[in-house]
Amino acid sequence: MSTFKARGIIIKENLVGDNDKSLIILLKDYGKFTVWARNCRNGKSKLLAGSSLFTYADFIIYDNGRSLSINQIDIIENFYNITEDLDTLAYGTYFLEFVDKNTQEATPINDIMLLLLKSLLILSKTTVLSPKLIAKIFEIKFLQINGYMPIVNNCCYCNISISNQNDIYLGANGVVCKNCKSKEDGLLKISLNTALVINHILCSKINDLYKFNVSNSVLDELSLASKKLLNTHLYTNLKSTSFIEQLENI
Question: Within 10 Å of residue 147's Cβ, how many Cβ atoms?
């Protein structure tokens, strides 16, 4: 039995009984863990303010050898701005569910945690970038961090540079030139600008990801490209995706 301190962000919550919560927290240097927040829904509980989704905090956690429980929460950021707008709330919830469904427990994933925090910070504060663009950048960078690195400078099959190609397609592993398009089914035609944007995302450090904008046409192509890559490599059957689609159709 021991107590330890860890910095993390709450990515999922489940109500238990009248006053408790079961929380899934992404902890720096430790990974994803399920942690009990006992009596946190009691109005007088010292854990009340910090035991909600999006809370980024320093947690004092007690390990009794069978389960983990929170003794103390020192809030660093609660991303309150995200919850004030329906669009940012939808995308913020999507980021949390996406990370939860596509990570394993007890595996240190500091790069993913940094990507999530940076994305939530931009989502909560920017007035320039659309939530949709933030999400596409997040998805493509997440793929790269998880080892799925699409080839975007050269054709996946013949290795020819795409810089002077008029017809470019995206397949499961990256771009495909017109001479090789018969080698793979279900290709998505994209513009050179979209391929360059994907390459920029892959080459950028996490702290530099959200320093550019794109046209609506490129964003539409980027959305289709990201969806194709995600469906090939990751778990994408998320409840929050349906909610975002409903908002976009309003």
Answer: 7
